[in-house]
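Progress narrative, work stream C.
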Amino acid sequence: MARERKFSTEDVYQATKQILLTYGYEGFNFGLLAEQLDISRGAIYKYFDNREELITSFMLYELRLFLVELKSIEKLHSFEEQLDFLLDLIFKNSTVPRLIEIGRRIPVNENLKVKENISQLENLHLEMYKHLQGFIDQGRQEQKIKASLPDSLILGMIFQTIMIPNHFGIPQTEWILSIREILCNGMLN
């Protein structure tokens, strides 16, 4: 049995993230988490009823951190500055798409805390788009974004760039600049 030791919620969340990214939702369990943190499974159950509650709490934590950073986009004055900031933020948080996909696998069960967490995640997701709407509006006001393009398509294109594999190991700075070039000017001469 693992020895009892003190641990923080952040310790639990960092270990949860590592396990989710390594083993996925299906492979995540309190045994692995307890082993990684060198604590007993019972210590985890003192705070979380089940893995769904823990994972949705972790996702709330991650999304809140992302939103704190995203809010800084409003301090930037031009669309170009905002776009650079957004691309840097997306690539800095490159694990977010995998975590979102894992989150979609979480069944909504009878646990009230899980239901509440999922509801909060949906609200935070809407808040994220509220902050991004200002970015889109700025681009339209500066006539950098075509009026005929739907907002959701623009944001989807930007956020999906993180999923493009960099098979040839192009340095990240150059990779982001190339993605920005394609987003802003297309790929045709």
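Work stream C, second folded protein:
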Amino acid sequence: MSLMSQASRRLATVSFALVAALPALAQEPEKGVLWETTAQAEIPGMPMKLPAYTAKYCTKEEWTKPPDTSKDASQNCRHTSFEQTPAKVTWTMTCDNPPMTGNGEINFNGTDAYTGFVTMDAEQVTMQINLTGKKIGTCDDPE
């Protein structure tokens, strides 16, 4: 085999390896912020609080939507507006099952914690969900 042929073969092998590696490099997951959020629901007039619910959420550094405060996907809740300032996020939402509307607000305490609430209005009941959250690390593929 000639020297030129060996060099061409090596170049082809290196080129193939680089091309094969490109998709892996291009698909590097975006890094996000991992938050632990606790939601505590209260219904006025009920003598006791409902059990608290704690979950972890991977968000973008700059939030694009509020945390999901429902454990039940069948409620089919959608955010109908979302606004963010450096210190606060606010939103409105609707759910289908049962039919409800609501609004929420989160106030950031520095860059590592927040407090907030979601108020939901259904046919004959209003529920307030109190939120607390703390940053607990980083994560891949934020929402």
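Helices lie at 3-26. No further action is required on this item.
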